[in-house]
């Protein structure tokens, strides 16, 4: 007798999924018991399993079914595949720190899903229990810098670097950057797509990404480039080690957050960590189209922390 388990995504009865449907959709490569692992801004995440090996994976199912956000899951898959394709063209064996898409397709007609490896807790999860050590943070920062180098070389900016989007596995030795739903192509055929920003500071209320971690440039300029991902990473590093950012206050406007960021010196974020201060100064000093010195920052942080 064949047992059927059904799942309702959200409160929409049109999104009924039967347990065998994932097996059928993936050609019997993957199965799921529909145990929920988490929820994102545009997808619910469930436990999946590779049938042949028993390896546990993560199944992401689109939950947004209206408006322009309808295809965010498909968009994230395209972005990730573009990065890996670019790495392959340049002779790379793979983009370290960037999750591969193991399978993607429609679980049923109106429900898109995709399967990725399952990783451990996020950096945010770890920091909730205790401030991370300098060495723990250095492992995260250098790994994400390596991932950003690959992403940016593919002509893409992530635009939402934050502790919740950094996943930790293998006891802290493996770091993976996730959630590419806000990523954007900023360069095509070696040329920038977006125009240069105005030199006049004009604060905006509309921010792409997460206000707490986005660069100060996002508060005054519209377009996001490589330097902004790096700045967000070092704001993330400060938060992981100190537990709090200077602008992390309740009932504070986005405009005020931007003004505090512009006035906050690296010494206030990294009082005794020279490599981090110099890296943040470097990123803040980059011109709109100028690529960061990823290898230099990685080397300085590794040397400074005895990695």
Concise description?
With 307 residues, the protein is an alpha+beta fold.
Features:
307 residues; alpha+beta; 20% strand
Beta strand %:
15-25%
Class of secondary structure makeup: alpha+beta
Spatial sequence of strands, sheet with the most strands: 3-4-5-7-6
Distance between the termini: 57 Å
Assembly state here?
A: single chain
Mean pLDDT over the residues: 82
Fold and architecture overview:
- It is a single chain.
- This protein is α+β, with helices and mostly antiparallel strands and 307 residues long.
- It is 36% helix and 20% strand.
- The strands form 5 sheets. It has a 5-stranded antiparallel sheet with strand order 3-4-5-7-6. A two-stranded antiparallel sheet has the order 1-2. It has a two-stranded antiparallel sheet with strand order 8-11.
Can you lay out the helices and strands and say which pair or pack?
Blueprint: E1 6-8, E2 16-18, H1 19-25, E3 30-39, E4 43-50, E5 56-62, H2 72-89, E6 103-108, E7 111-117, H3 123-129, H4 134-153, E8 156-157, E9 166-169, E10 174-177, E11 184-185, E12 187-188, E13 191-192, H5 217-220, H6 226-242, H7 254-263, H8 266-269, H9 274-284, H10 294-305
Antiparallel strand pairs: 1-2, 3-4, 4-5, 5-7, 6-7, 8-11, 9-10, 12-13
Helix pairs in contact: 4-6, 4-10, 6-9, 9-10
């Amino acid at each position: 007798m064949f047992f059927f388990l059904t799942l309702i995504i959200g409160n929409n009865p049109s999104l009924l999924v039967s347990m065998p449907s994932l097996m059928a959709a993936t050609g019997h490569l993957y199965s799921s018991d529909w145990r929920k692992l988490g929820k994102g801004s545009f997808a619910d995440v469930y436990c999946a399993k590779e049938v042949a090996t028993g390896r546990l994976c993560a199944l992401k199912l689109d939950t947004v079914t209206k408006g322009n956000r309808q295809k965010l899951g498909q968009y994230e898959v395209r972005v990730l595949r573009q990065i890996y394709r670019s790495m392959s063209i340049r002779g790379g064996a793979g983009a370290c720190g960037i999750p591969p898409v193991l399978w993607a397709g429609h679980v049923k007609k109106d429900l898109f899903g995709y399967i990725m490896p399952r990783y451990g807790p996020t950096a945010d999860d770890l920091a909730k229990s205790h401030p991370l050590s300098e060495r723990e943070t250095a492992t995260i920062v250098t790994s994400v810098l390596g991932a950003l180098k690959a992403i940016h070389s593919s002509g893409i900016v992530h635009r939402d670097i934050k502790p919740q989007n950094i996943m930790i596995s293998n006891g802290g030795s493996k770091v993976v950057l996730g959630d590419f739903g806000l990523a954007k192509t900023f360069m095509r055929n070696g040329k920038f797509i977006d125009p240069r920003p105005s030199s006049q500071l004009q604060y905006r209320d509309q921010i792409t990404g997460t206000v707490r971690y986005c660069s100060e440039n996002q508060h005054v300029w519209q377009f996001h480039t490589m330097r902004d991902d790096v700045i967000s990473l070092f704001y993330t590093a400060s938060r992981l080690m100190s537990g709090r950012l200077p602008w992390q206050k309740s009932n504070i406007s986005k405009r005020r957050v931007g003004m505090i960021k512009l006035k906050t010196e690296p010494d206030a974020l990294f009082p005794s960590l020279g490599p981090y201060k110099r890296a943040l100064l470097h990123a803040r000093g980059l011109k709109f189209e100028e690529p960061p010195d990823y290898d230099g920052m990685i080397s300085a942080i590794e040397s400074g922390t005895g990695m």
